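fyi for ur records
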Amino acid sequence: MDDEINVTYITLGGYVEVDKYRYVYFFSMFIVYILIICSNSTIVYIIWVHPNLHEPMYVFIAALSVNSVLFSTAVYPKLLNDFLSEKQTISYSACLFQFHLFYSLGGSEFLLLAAMSYDRYVSICKPLQYHTIMTKNTVSVFLGLAWIVPACQIAVPAGLSAKEKLCSFILKGIFCNNTVYKLQCVISGARVVRDMIIMLNVALVPVLFILFTYTRIFIITYRSSREVRRKAAQTCLPHLIVLINFSCLCAYDVIIVGLEPDFPKTVHLIMTLQVILYHPLFNPIMYGLKMKEISKHLKTFFSPAKIK
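which gave:
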């Protein structure tokens, strides 16, 4: 039985007319992947080389950009290979590995946004204690936990799924997300409870914490001067917009499993592509344009001749 599981292959059945449009799919997604890597790498580089950006908030922004590149790399290379292949297949073990990367890096996104919201809360609500609280060690601990905690928690369902018996070998998707569960013969109540606890830990609790911290920030700044409100809005609104964008995409990813039979295949493909397309590109655009210091250095970086 173990030998059979090790050589089991899954057919990715979510593609639409891939034989007819394979090169359109390939070059479109290849360009998007290059844009994701270049835009996010530029943000990381700008933060790395400018000492005035070596502050916790910008470190977390750089971490989000790194996470976006890792998140995309968990999906795009296999996706590009499938567009050029006669058959779109993946081994079950590789599918579970992709499942693990997809959700652990997704959980890291929420935890990094939570760490950023805490940084903004301390900066605005406790400015005199900021440098005492947000030390380099604190930032390092937050970064480590943001990547380690989701990876460890998502390893549980991924590992247990490897032992499950499969009753279907056609995945109704283009990469391995929670539609993997549809392949398994039995979905126990215990597994549903376990997955709900994991989702609570890596997504819902961070989101509630973020909303709490920003609510506190807006209450305090509302009582302050117009300049304080302006600065708070300038740094907090991009984070909130990124959070809302990512939360909506994640909500779709969770809900689609239950609605799968009611969705036309083309609509399902388009909506699935939104999950892996918009957010990794949205992050660098939002932070590059809306964060004043990063925007200033980007202008210098791309127009050096104009700077004396």
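DSSP finds eleven helices and three strands in the chain. thats all i got for now
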